Amino acid sequence: MKFTGPKAKRCRRHGVNIFGSDKYDKILQRKPYGPGKGPRTRGKRPSEYGKQLLEKQKARDMFGVSERQFHRLYKTAASSQEQTGDELLKLLERRLDNAIYRAGFALTRFQSRQFSSHGLFTVNGVRVTSPSFRLKEGDVVEIRPKSKNSSVFSPIVEAHEKYMPPSWLKVDAGNLKFEVTGLPGADDFEQAIDVRQVIEYYSRR
Known about the structure:
205 residues; alpha+beta; Ribosomal Protein S4 Delta 41, Chain A, domain 1; Structural Genomics Hypothetical 15.5 Kd Protein In mrcA-pckA Intergenic Region, Chain A
C-alpha cells in the first residue's frame, strides 16, 4: 500500500480520513503522523495560527472546495443572523455533491463530486452539473433515468442497506432519490472539523 500519494499525504497531514475510502483509514493506522516527519520533528507543536490554517485546509480538502469558494461561503455565513460557524457548516452540508454523499448514493465525497459534475442527478426534475449547487428545503434529488442502471451504483445500493442517512434527508434508496426535508443541525455536521478554529483563522485576516 502506498503512503506517499497526494491524497494519502493530506490525510496524514490532517490526521483524519478526509476522503472516506477505507484505504486511508489503513494508512493512518500504519503512519499516524504527518508526511516528512521524523522522530525529531513529531513532538513540535504548531502555533495557534498554524492550527487554524490547518483546520481551514482540512475543511477545504474534505468538502473539495477551492479557497475562493470557501472564503465566499465564510462571508455568506458571517453576514447571516445565525452563528457563523454553524451557518458555514450548514452551507457546506447543503452542497449537492455533499448531499448525494450524505444520502448514501456515493462511497466518497470525491465520487459524489464526479456524479454531480457529470450531471447524473436532477434537482426537481432539472439536470444539474454544478457540485456546489445549494439545496434548499423541499428540493428533490433523483438519479437521471438513463444513469439508473449504471453498474457503478450496484455496490452503492448494496452498501446502503446498512447506512443511516441524516435526519434532514428523506431517502428512497431503491430509486436513488431523496428529498431535503429540513436543514442540517448540529448532530449532522462533520464532526472531524473544529469550525471554531476556521472562524478564528478568517477573523484574523
